[in-house]
């Protein structure tokens, strides 16, 4: 069974609004990472949060991690049309070093 | 540009063909990966290499055969594939095997098996 599950599967917002995507995982993690994928292309790393961290920021991105709930969220503030893409969380399992396990992703559409 | 280059970008092959996908990184990374991305499915980890040695084979059919001749190059040899093998194949690399840092992905090879 897959480790990560994203919610929602699809999200459509207007430019300027905030977008929040959630990710849940099942087993203990070393760290959790968020990636972005433009249609049919490779994934680009956005941010990494370690299991002992609760929140991390990078530009307009804010990631939180709640290890007690086994969940993480990605917030994109003041969204732009160029943010339209699929967003994936990926967990690095505590006892399976090196394996990035991806969720199904959230398709974000930002309308101008 | 992530520093990981995959060729070809697109490939159409018949079920009896033999072809190879190539991945190249000059980031000085020690770990390289093959992922398969099918429509409506999560990325599936296929193979993991660390320092040119295969450390993970995720129950992948033998019609997929990886090769890592050195730390900068990774190949995926394909033979007698099935139409359901059509997908985006992504190569990635990371500094080390333990996921302490991020993975860098290539642009992928869009494979169509006819």
What does this protein look like?
- The complex is a heterodimer of chains A (112) and B (114).
- Chain A is built from no helices and eleven strands.
- Chain A is mostly beta strands.
- In chain A, strands 2, 4, 5, 9, 10 and 11 form a six-stranded mixed sheet that branches. A five-stranded antiparallel sheet of chain A has the order 1-3-8-7-6, with no helix packed on it.
- By secondary structure, chain B is an all-beta fold.
- In chain B, strands 2, 4, 5, 6, 9, 10 and 11 form a seven-stranded mixed sheet that branches. Chain B has a four-stranded antiparallel sheet with strand order 1-3-8-7, with no helix packed on it.
- The termini of chain B are far apart.
- The relative contact order of chain B is 0.34.
- Chains A and B meet through β4, β5, β9 and β10 of A and β4, β5, β9 and β10 of B.
Features:
A: 112 residues; mainly beta; B: 114 residues; four-stranded antiparallel β-sheet; 56% strand
Briefly characterize the structure.
Helix content of chain A is 0%, strand content 58%. Chain A has strands at 5-7, 10-14, 19-24, 29-37, 43-50, 55-58, 61-66, 71-76, 85-93, 100-102, 106-111.
Cα separation of the termini of chain A: 37 Å
Number of helices of chain B: 0
N- to C-terminal separation of chain B? 30 Å
Average pLDDT of chain B: 91
Count of separate DSSP helical elements of chain A: 0
The largest sheet of chain A, given as strand count, sense and whether it forms a barrel, is: 6 strands, mixed
**What's the shape of chain B?**
globular
Low-confidence stretches of chain A: none
Which residues of chain B form runs of ≥5 with pLDDT under 50? none
Give the integer mean of the pLDDT values of chain A: 90
By secondary-structure content and strand pairing, the structural class of chain A works out as: mainly beta
Oligomer: heterodimer
Fraction of residues in H or I helices of chain A: under 10%
Helical percentage of chain B? under 10%
């Amino acid at each position: 069974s897959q480790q990560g599950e994203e919610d929602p599967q699809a999200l459509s917002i207007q430019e300027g609004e905030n977008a929040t995507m959630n990710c849940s995982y099942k087993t203990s993690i070393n760290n959790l990472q968020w990636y972005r994928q433009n249609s049919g292309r490779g994934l680009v790393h956005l941010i990494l949060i370690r299991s002992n961290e609760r929140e991390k920021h990078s530009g307009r991105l804010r990631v939180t991690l709640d290890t007690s709930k086994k969940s993480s969220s990605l917030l994109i503030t003041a969204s732009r049309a160029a943010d339209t893409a699929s967003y994936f969380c990926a967990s690095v399992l505590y006892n399976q070093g090196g394996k990035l396990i991806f969720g199904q992703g959230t398709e974000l559409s930002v309308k101008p | 540009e992530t520093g990981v280059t995959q060729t070809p970008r697109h490939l159409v092959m018949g079920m009896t063909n033999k072809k190879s996908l190539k991945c190249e990184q000059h980031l000085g990374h020690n770990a390289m990966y093959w992922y398969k991305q099918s429509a409506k499915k999560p990325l599936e980890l296929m193979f993991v290499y660390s320092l040119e040695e295969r450390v993970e084979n995720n129950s992948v059919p033998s019609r997929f055969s990886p090769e890592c001749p050195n730390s900068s190059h990774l190949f995926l040899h394909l033979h007698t594939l099935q139409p359901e093998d059509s997908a985006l194949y992504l190569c990635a690399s990371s500094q080390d095997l333990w996921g302490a840092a991020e993975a860098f992905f290539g642009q992928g090879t869009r494979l169509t098996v006819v």
